[in-house]
Recover the amino acids of this structure.
């Protein structure tokens, strides 16, 4: 877990203030409080602000068992517990009726056309003729009523009550070793390029960690980070601290 992460923009400063207010409410009233949907960067910021509070617990839930990027945070007193059904989210499902090869972007665009804020939309899982849309409870009825067509294909959304075990991302992992968890070393290993080439890519602003662009070649990667590398794709990293006999660190990753 990273330590304190400062906001980088005015929007992030406002977001952090909302997080503190949410935590203070949970602490003062002794209740569970929930965020709207967070992306990976917001999740990091949320955790950083939450760490200021000693008597609270924090959990994140995406609404499904696939490997997703968007989740809702729950802050609650440490003597309480939180269950999946506590979270204010719904899972909607439909078969896709049509010849279009629809993607996540197609469905997200259709939802944005309904004037729904991104904060109220979680992960969208699309594969062949199936789509799962995770959304805030407040938006579920509107989406089921108004989202009936995407491109030239029809959908008929309904509540989905079973666990979503469909994996949106391929799970074929690759293994590499690195001397350290510096960003330049990790990028070099994942892309199988020289360290100097990796540094050039980073300094050009082509690498983001959890949706935050970084030009720091010595930025330290941690378990669970997602690297977005322009022209190369996204990479989900796993690092449990295990090392080789030559004292190099093992990293597992897969590409989106």
């Amino acid at each position: 877990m990273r330590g304190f992460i400062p906001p980088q923009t005015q929007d992030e400063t406002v977001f952090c203030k909302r997080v503190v207010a949410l935590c203070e409410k949970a602490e003062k009233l002794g209740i569970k409080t929930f965020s709207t949907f967070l992306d990976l960067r917001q999740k990091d910021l949320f955790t950083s602000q939450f760490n200021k509070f000693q008597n609270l617990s924090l959990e994140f839930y995406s609404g499904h068992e696939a490997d997703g990027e968007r989740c809702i945070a729950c802050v609650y007193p440490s003597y309480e517990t939180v269950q999946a059904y506590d979270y204010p989210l719904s899972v909607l499902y439909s078969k896709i009726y049509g010849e279009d090869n629809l993607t996540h972007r197609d469905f997200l665009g259709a939802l944005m056309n309904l004037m729904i804020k991104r904060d109220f939309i979680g992960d969208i899982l699309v594969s062949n003729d199936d789509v799962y849309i995770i959304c805030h409870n407040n938006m579920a009825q509107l989406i089921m009523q108004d989202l009936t067509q995407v491109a030239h294909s029809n959908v008929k959304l309904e509540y989905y009550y079973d666990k979503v075990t469909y994996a949106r991302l391929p799970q074929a992992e690759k293994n590499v070793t690195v001397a350290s968890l510096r960003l330049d070393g990790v990028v070099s290993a994942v892309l199988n390029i020289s360290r100097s080439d990796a540094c050039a890519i980073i300094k050009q602003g082509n690498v983001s960690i959890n949706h935050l662009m970084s030009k720091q070649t010595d930025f330290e990667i941690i378990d669970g980070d997602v690297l977005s590398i322009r022209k190369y794709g996204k990479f989900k990293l796993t690092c449990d601290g295990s090392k080789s006999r030559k004292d190099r660190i093992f990293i597992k990753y897969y590409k989106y």
